[in-house]
Specification:
Chain lengths: 473, 107
């Protein structure tokens, strides 16, 4: 592990210990958490190019450094939002858990070993259960219990595959596994079985289609900053990032693992969740629940690209992970502002919010268009990468289905827009006013990132994606 | 003690571990009580622990496997504690711990 990687884990943990001492204070923990996470974001941006030297397998260093940036970006935005939105007497514990979850995620992406990955996954999961059920409401306890059982089953499956890995390769680190893979060219059957079981565990953690049942419950029942954190980054890191690692390890021998049975199966799971998530989101009556199903659908895009594992698809998956973190977090922030302003997130219960909350509505519209893949927003580029990679590899049907699901995305978000934001203001929101700057700044920052990354895509491509593609080729 | 985890015993150990894994999964699928679900989960993860230690013995890497096992046991303890807290909360809020009757979230 690199020196700066240790900083990303140790400093938030130390700050969390300090926060826990100021449990009843209102401002001190929030300020400390914000400073630590903002410094972490700056550090992750400045050390990006230094970290590219050490690879445990092809492309791992770029993937880890880029994921660290996304983690700190979302966590610092969530901490800023929570400083204004989280009204609780136990602020110290709240921000301490936010810091521990960030440290855990940084540990997951900087781990060089599957067992280390497991330990950090459990750190992240335990903090997620606590944060989901933080406010002691029956619904959130229930959401947390569902998440707890499914996630624990996934952990057990992961451990079983780690034990098989130990028999097969004699160790659990990526380095040992890569060496073993390179030494036994041509007989990948045991490897396919082991990494296939592992992929199953990570698909449960990512909330892909047949294993999705906990996702909407957990996202809906948690408070908005926590849902933004969960949907924006936690499920990406514990599920999709780990799935990408598995796919990249598999693709060391058979490059472009689409012809490998595991890769093929994961691609079908990804396609199923793209379509299922998009179709289910059409029927939802609640803003946050619709966002949760939309999350399942977007997760499918990342998975399908990760399982295809061509350099173009991998770059698309990585960039879509970044985009999903920004636009989904923005949408959950907007949902939080709406909930705080009107007391409800039911789509049918109000209309014409745009007249009352113009800035929130504008930022949410940017995020929705980016999710649907409308140019010039950043979501367009990542979806273009993914669909072009599918087409290039000869999966014409899947490419067409992914394109079609993108139209479905636009359909359900237009329905949401028309129901909630557009039109004449309904009577029950007469007294609603725009929320303060604390709610708006994170939304604006993310809206700016979405537009800027879309318009200045060559900059992103040259600095972040092309090193990745170069290593993979 | 060490003779239990030799490479020759690997298949038998894995058989027992898999049995424990599926007994745990069956317990989780069949019971209507969150505490029993948690017990099923524990049986499942104990099966995984047995698999891990026998894998270490078979790969000739016993010290590493023992270290991993100790870390795993402590992680399990934390997870079980959090799970029990959630179950106690659900019981206090709703008065029962039947997973099929927890019906606040639908659709």
């Amino acid at each position: 592990m690199l020196m700066s990687a240790a900083f990303f884990i140790v400093i938030p943990l130390a700050a969390a210990a300090v926060c826990a001492f100021f449990n009843k204070k209102q401002t001190a923990p929030a300020v400390l958490a914000n400073i630590v996470l903002a410094c972490g974001l700056l550090l992750s941006l400045t050390t990006f190019s230094d970290n590219l030297g050490q690879d445990w397998f092809y492309g791992q260093a770029v993937l880890s450094s880029f994921m660290t940036i996304i983690i700190y970006l979302v966590s610092s935005a969530v901490a800023f939002f929570a400083a204004f939105a989280a009204s609780t007497k136990r602020r110290g514990s709240y921000f301490a858990m936010l810091l521990v979850i960030t440290a855990g995620m940084a540990g997951v992406v900087n781990a060089a070993d599957f067992f280390t990955l497991y330990v950090y996954l459990e750190v992240v999961s335990v903090c997620s259960y606590a944060l989901i059920s933080f406010y002691n409401r029956p619904r959130s306890t229930e959401g947390a219990i569902r998440y707890f059982y499914l996630s624990s089953i996934a952990s057990a499956i992961l451990l079983f595959s780690i034990s098989l890995l130990m028999v097969y390769a004699g160790g659990t680190s990526y380095e040992v596994l890569t060496a073993k893979i390179l030494a036994t060219q041509g007989s990948p059957a045991p490897l396919n079985i082991i990494l296939g079981i592992m992929a199953l565990a990570f698909m449960i953690k990512a909330g892909l289609f047949p294993f999705h049942s906990w996702t909407p419950d957990a996202y809906e029942s948690a408070t908005s900053p926590v849902s933004a954190l969960l949907a924006g980054i936690v499920t990406k890191v514990v599920g999709t990032y780990a799935l990408m690692v598995v796919c990249m390890l598999l693709s060391i021998i058979n490059f472009g693992i689409a012809n490998n049975p595991v890769g093929r199966a994961v691609m079908w799971f990804g396609l199923a969740s793209i379509i299922f998530g998009a179709l289910n989101a059409q029927e939802q009556k609640d803003f946050k629940r619709m966002l949760a199903y939309s999350s399942i659908s977007q997760m499918g895009y990342i998975t399908i690209a990760a399982a295809l594992a061509t350099p173009l698809a991998m770059a698309g998956a990585l960039f879509h992970m970044f985009n999903h973190a920004t636009f989904k977090a923005l949408l959950f922030f907007a949902a939080g502002s709406v909930k705080r302003a009107t007391g409800s997130t039911e789509i049918d219960s109000m209309s014409g919010l745009q007249a009352k909350m113009p800035y929130t509505a504008g930022a949410a519209t940017v995020a929705m268009l980016s999710t649907a893949g409308v140019p010039p927003f950043s979501g367009f580029w990542s979806k273009l990468f993914i669909i072009a990679a599918l087409w290039q590899a000869g999966f014409y049907g899947m490419a067409a289905a992914a394109l079609f699901a993108s139209v479905l995305t636009l359909a359900y978000f237009l329905k949401l827009q028309r129901g909630m934001f557009f039109g004449k203001p309904s009577d029950n929101i007469k007294d609603v006013r725009e929320r303060g700057a604390g709610f708006l700044i994170p939304c604006f920052v993310f809206a700016f990132i979405i537009i800027a990354a879309g318009l200045y895509f060559p900059f992103i491509y040259d600095n972040f994606l092309s090193p990745f593609i170069r290593v993979l080729q | 003690m060490n003779s239990l985890f030799t490479p020759e015993n690997l298949q038998f150990n894995y058989f027992v571990a898999l049995m424990m894994f599926f007994i745990g999964v069956y317990t989780m699928a069949a019971s209507r009580n969150l505490i029993r679900l948690l017990i099923g989960l524990e049986i499942t993860s104990k099966g995984c622990m047995l698999a891990l230690i026998s894998a270490g013995g078979a790969a000739g890497n016993m010290p590493t496997a023992q270290a991993l096992l100790i870390i795993m046991i402590s992680v399990e303890a934390v997870v079980v504690a959090v799970g029990l807290i959630l179950i106690i909360r659900a019981f206090r809020q709703q008065g029962n711990i039947d997973p099929t009757k927890l019906s606040g979230l639908k659709g």
